Fold this sequence. Notes:
Blueprint: E1 17-24, E2 30-38, E3 44-48, H1 55-59, E4 72-74, H2 85-94, E5 95-98, H3 102-105, H4 111-117, E6 129-132, H5 141-153, E7 158-162, H6 165-169, E8 174-178, E9 183-188, H7 189-194, H8 196-201
Parallel strand pairs: 3-7, 3-8, 5-6
Antiparallel strand pairs: 1-2, 1-4, 8-9
Amino acid sequence: MTPADPGTGPVPPPSPEVSGLAHAYPGGHQTLFGVGLAVACGERVALPGPTGTGKTTLVLHLDGILTGGAGSVTVAGPRVDPSDRTALAGIRRRVGIVFQDPDDRLLMPAVREDVAFGPAAVPARRPEILVPDEPPSDPAPASRREPADILRSLDVTVPMVTHDLPHALEPCPRSAALGVGVIAADGRTRDLLCDEALMRAHRLEPSFGFDPRSVTPPYA
């Protein structure tokens, strides 16, 4: 699932790819305003943003849990279309969302145990695209490192929703930071974290005392 070498074969289409995506919930509350995002096969991209910026709404469109807004979502070519049940079933086999709510997500007390558990665990289905929605974080360095190590060890595409910017820095070379319903910035995670004006403008400031320049991610 790593990106194809242009010299050895065709580059696969972005998976997933979102274009002009807008969404409003019943009652008129709009959470997405024309979001565009393309993730290459095998890429790990963090989707950081504070609460209320539409992060979860965005990822729930990747396998058709939410539909009906403007714009389009495709997964390795096929469009996410609730009216095409055959195509949607295929897409849902390729996309696994690990939900934020522990009651929906984890059955075991540790991330590694849950991944190994079996049919209740999303990663055990071997999806091509794994979408952690706010993966658990812990101030202890070893506990913080374990989820990042697991994500790096899996041969999957990872769009990762998070509000924990240091957590995003470790496994994800690229970040597409959300403002209120829009992609506010898209680039190298370290560059975004070092942009203090951008961080303040979109309420993405890291924890007090954290300096992204002092961290050397494994991919650097």
